[in-house]
């Protein structure tokens, strides 16, 4: 009689162990499926869609992100140096930088020339709104480039800024 009770306990323990393993495998499968769906949707969002050419007289569409195509660098527009106060409690941090704007096409140069004071103002306001911590890391500089490109592109009609390149960057 005692042996039958032991056998039933073993069978009950085995069934419980199998049920726990089955639940864990099921949860792993669901987690993998969710991860796959999330990653595949990110790739689809990151994949550029085909753009149609703008009709004559219409502004060229500007991309949402900076260009990372370093093999087909567009025309460069050098800017004069910028010296701004960085946002800080004591006001004792300065940023001196020089940058070049990569244009989508050469025909954008006259518009940049005409709007140079506006573009300088955009860059100065953007730079001076940053703290030392914002611009001291590589990621911070990349975010700063993205912000400058986005803000300048909002004002352009004949093309767009593909990228911004810092040729001088000193923080004190």
Automatic annotation (TrEMBL):
<comment type="similarity">
    <text>Belongs to the FliL family.</text>
</comment>
<keyword id="KW-0472">Membrane</keyword>
<dbReference type="GO" id="GO:0009425">
    <property type="term" value="C:bacterial-type flagellum basal body"/>
</dbReference>
<dbReference type="InterPro" id="IPR005503">
    <property type="entry name" value="FliL"/>
</dbReference>
<protein>
    <recommendedName>
        <fullName>Flagellar protein FliL</fullName>
    </recommendedName>
</protein>
<dbReference type="GO" id="GO:0006935">
    <property type="term" value="P:chemotaxis"/>
</dbReference>
<dbReference type="GO" id="GO:0071978">
    <property type="term" value="P:bacterial-type flagellum-dependent swarming motility"/>
</dbReference>
<feature type="region of interest" description="Disordered">
    <location>
        <begin position="49"/>
        <end position="69"/>
    </location>
</feature>
<keyword id="KW-0283">Flagellar rotation</keyword>
<feature type="compositionally biased region" description="Low complexity">
    <location>
        <begin position="49"/>
        <end position="59"/>
    </location>
</feature>
<dbReference type="GO" id="GO:0005886">
    <property type="term" value="C:plasma membrane"/>
</dbReference>
<feature type="transmembrane region" description="Helical">
    <location>
        <begin position="15"/>
        <end position="39"/>
    </location>
</feature>
<dbReference type="Pfam" id="PF03748">
    <property type="entry name" value="FliL"/>
</dbReference>
<comment type="function">
    <text>Controls the rotational direction of flagella during chemotaxis.</text>
</comment>
<keyword id="KW-0145">Chemotaxis</keyword>
<keyword id="KW-0282">Flagellum</keyword>
<keyword id="KW-0966">Cell projection</keyword>
<keyword id="KW-1133">Transmembrane helix</keyword>
<keyword id="KW-0812">Transmembrane</keyword>
<keyword id="KW-1003">Cell membrane</keyword>
<keyword id="KW-0969">Cilium</keyword>
